[in-house]
Structures are given as C-alpha cells and as structure tokens.
Amino acid sequence: MQSISLLVVLFAALLTPLLMAKFNIHSLPTAVAEIIVGIILGKSLFGWVVSNDVLEELRTLGVIVLIFLSGMEIDFSLFKPQKQSGRKIGAAPLAFLSYGSIVLMALAAAWVLDLLGLYHHIVFAAIIFATVALGVVIAALKEKELLSKPFGQTVLLLAALGEVLPLIALTVYQNLNGTSSRSVWLLLLIFVAAIFLLHRFRKPYQWFAEIDKSTTQLDIRLAFFLIVTLVTVAESVGAENILGAFLAGMVMKLLKPREETEDKLTSIGYGFFIPIFFIMTGANMNLPAMFKDPASLALIPVLLIAFYAAKALLIPLLLMRFRKHNALAGMLLTSTTITLVIPALSIGKSLGIISSTQSAAFTLAAVITCIASPILFNTFYVAEKDDVKKTRVHIIGANLMTVPIVQQLTRGLYEVRLYTDDPVKFKTYNSEAPVTLLADVTEPTLQNAGVFDADIIVLAHFDEDKNFAVAELALAAKVPRIIARFDAKNATDGRYDELAAQGVEVYNTFETNIAMLRSLIETPSTLKILQDTTAGIFEIVVNNRRFAGLEVKNLPYVNDITISQIFRGDHFIAPHGDTQLHLGDHIIFSGDKAQIGQMRAEFEKVN
C-alpha cells in the first residue's frame, strides 16, 4: 500500500495542472487545487491515499522546501527607504502601518472566538489570522504586472511581513508553551548561524558560478546545505524546522543567485516536493468526522469571517494612497492564507491546543480564502493611473544628425531633451525641435539644468574634448547609459579606451558609414530593412519577469519578428526555439515598426 499510495500521489500531482490547463482554470491557485485533490483521494472520500512513513517524510520535506522558496521571494529592496511621490505616503511606511492594523484586528478576532467559546487559545489563533500567503499574492500581482508599481510594492511588502513576523511569533510561542526546557533566547542562535553562513559564502558563491558545471550543480548543493544546516540548528535550539528553512531561503536570496539557480530550485520544489505536501495535507483531512461534529462545522464560517475581519482595517489605510476599488482589492488579496496555516496547525497539534476537527476547520477556511480572494481581487482591481516611465534621453549637441532623432524618438516611449551651448545652433534648430540653450557645459551648469537626470545621455558635439569632459561628469553622476561621439580619435590617446572600459558606448560616424556600406554589399536587404517604412531592426531589453524563463518559441509576437541575436551579460548567443530568456537579455530582431512600441512596453516594463 505504501508504494501504491506514493504512486497515486505522484500521478495526482502530474494530472492536476494538466486538468487545470485543459479546462482553463486560472483563478484557482494550484496549491489549493492540490489540497482539494488530496481531500478527494484521502480519508475524506475515496481512501486511495493512506498516510505512511515515506509520504510523511516527503510531506515534511515539501513544507521545508516551500518555506525555503518563500524566503527566497522576499524582495529586500522594499525595506529600504523609498522616494515618495509628492505628499503621498511611501510603500514601506504604509505597509508597516497596515500590518500593525492586521495584528490588532487578528487579536480582536481571536478574542471574539474565545468569547463565543469556539476556540480559547487567543495568541495562537491571532498568529494564524495574521498570516498572509506570500506565494499566492506574488502570483496574483505578477499576473497583473503590478510588482513594479506602488500598489504592487505596498501589497508585496505587506505580504512579506505577513509571512516573516507570524513565523517568528509562531516559533517563540511554540518555544514558550512547549515541553522544551530550552530558553527562548537560544532562538537567537539560529539568526547568528544564518548571518555566519551568509558572510561565509558571499564571496565563494561568485566563484561557484565560474567553476560550476552540469554534473556538479554547486548552487543547488549549496542551497540544500543551507536548508539542512539551518533546519538542524533550528531543531537543536527548540525551534520549528520551518523557521530554519525560511532563514535559509533569505540567506540564499541575499547571496544574489543567478536566474537559472532560482529556476532550478523552483523546478525541484514545485515539480516534486511541494505538490506532495499539499496533496497529503488534503488526504489527511477527515471531513466526514468534522461534519459529524456540529461545533467544528459551525466553526468554519466563523473562521472565514475572522480571516477577512483581521484585514478589514486595510481598506481605510490603503485609501490613503490608492483608489477605493483597489483598497478593497488589496484587502481581499492579503486575506489569502495557506502557506503558514498548515505548519502552524501541526505545531498546534503537537502542543495539544487544537483538535483534529478544529485543525480541519482552520484548513478549510484557509482553502476557501485561497479560492475566493484571488478571484475577488481580479474582479475589483482597477488600473491606477498609468505610471510606466518613459526612457529619458538627453542629447547634448544640436545638429543635422540629432534633430531628426529627437523628432522620431519623441513619438515613441522616450522623453527626449536636446541641449546646446551654441547660440547660433539654438536659433537654427529651435523651430525644428525643442532645444535648451546652455551657457556652457561645465558641471554646475549641467547639474542645474538637470542634464544628468536621465536614463541615457548622448554626447553628439563635434568638439570631442567637450564630449570627453561631459562623459567623465556623467560617469561621476552614475548615468545608466552614456553614448559619446568621437570621430577623430588620436591613436596615441588612451582616454577613449578608458571611457569605453568604464562602460561609455563610443561611436564613430566614419566607421559607422563603412560598416553600413559593407553590410549593403554583403547583405543587400539590410539597407532595405533600415529604410523601409514598415520594417526595421530593433533592440529591446527583457525587464519584465513574466518573460523570464520563457522559451523563444513561446514568446508573443514570435511569428511576426525574426530574432537574430541575444546579448546576455558580455557576450552574444545565437537563439534557438528552446533558448530561454533571462532578465536583462537584449533581444536584437527585425520586424514591423508598428509593433515595436507595444513590444517595448511589455518586455521593458519592470515587473
């Protein structure tokens, strides 16, 4: 029966997403679907899955890997002070204030349960009510491409707090109320161990990437070493293994793993361990026994109300920054909870403070929030004012080459400014394009004019000494991209190579013309593509996480464009149909000019 039960669980894990895709079930999180499948296959209905030692070990590994991956989802940049737009409250202060309201309302909801005589352990219930399913929240925000926007950042940070703080509180509660004689201060040892491992592997991890190969997979070995080490430390000091797993995920995240590493860890987790955990969670529930108990049955709607009531104060708080529909949508989405509820209930059982039927009621209520909340979020969310930033391009040097470029770029997703320090050229070209006249190109003048407040600076002066001087100033101001014209470079002057070594993109109009003529001779269609009114050669950067990990053959627009090369890191790769895209990839392709605006908006959106 052990082998048969394992076979049934693995087949169910394979079949569940296939059926969801077949019947276009997109609003239901896969984790919830797997719990429902477990309920059907387990002791509640068919009884085909019987718990055994092997499945319980795999179930434990599943929750450890799930919590580890949740730790890797934490975006630590959200905890840094952020610029506030106007007088609006920032994402971080609003999220911390909002989570404070969740804690208060969770305690109030738990107190009401105690007054009603339904459940008497107020602190434990409050911890459960204060949890947020970070994975479900991230999936919902990713689907709507909101992670880079103020609303998405606020809700994401709120969800991160709703996973981190209850986990720590749960560990402390278990330590204080369990049979262990260890001091609660020993819990600090696990944090010390996490900090030690982070510092120990920060530098070697970069070296791992250089010597890694397919038969060693050093990054994955390190990940599981961190998991086992911190889980062992956690259990040794009387804490739950999930705290160690969560800290291991945070350490791994702070090591800044490559995109491929995160993909491989996600594949291992969600491909094998995590589905077993969710299916076995459902299989171990005994709904018929719960339905025979009127008190437990009555507990489900009360718990469901409590899960939503704990987040009720979010609506007036989110209204401080967002419109009414989105404040409601944010409250509903953060009411989603499942990730920590199930491990918490296991702790409650081990402490003897919750019965099996009560545990099933908590689980069912949490499952219902995972079904209803994402659907309601998608229903109520209304797009805020479009805050997609245009690429800011500042060009210094007004001439016959730059003015047409300004005229063309301003029609797309670019905010272009043209500067000159020549009054004659200002008078000549100001009627053709908006030109700003500078007194000179010294640092104070350029700073006061906001020239360096740009994503791209183009130095198009005929005077190369000016271009060189301004390029150095732009480097000091940390402008992301600097393009500089140098037509008559002195072969004995190494300063141009110095600029290039620091990332300045140097171009030479003479060399460009030679390259164009050669291309025209060798590939006659090149000039036709460049001059054609509908076709063109373009480059876009993959900033949108929605496209990270997608194979080229599955990209939108792939049938309308021809991808010639992908520039990744510091080298070009020849793409094939199964080539996976990574964040930061530069895609060079030919296609219809009419589509480039929409493609750039989708691929270059920071998400």
UniProtKB/TrEMBL annotation:
Topology term for the membrane: Multi-pass membrane protein
Location of this chain's protein in the cell: Membrane
Keywords annotated in UniProt: Antiport, Ion transport, Membrane, Transmembrane, Transmembrane helix, Transport
Residue ranges of the TM segments: 57-79, 91-112, 118-141, 153-172, 184-201, 222-248, 268-287, 299-322, 328-348, 360-383
Domain RCK C-terminal as annotated: residue spans: 525-605
Superkingdom in the source lineage: Bacteria
Family: Belongs to the monovalent cation:proton antiporter 2 (CPA2) transporter (TC 2.A.37) family.
Protein name as it appears in the record: Monovalent cation:proton antiporter family protein
Protein's organism: Lacticaseibacillus hegangensis
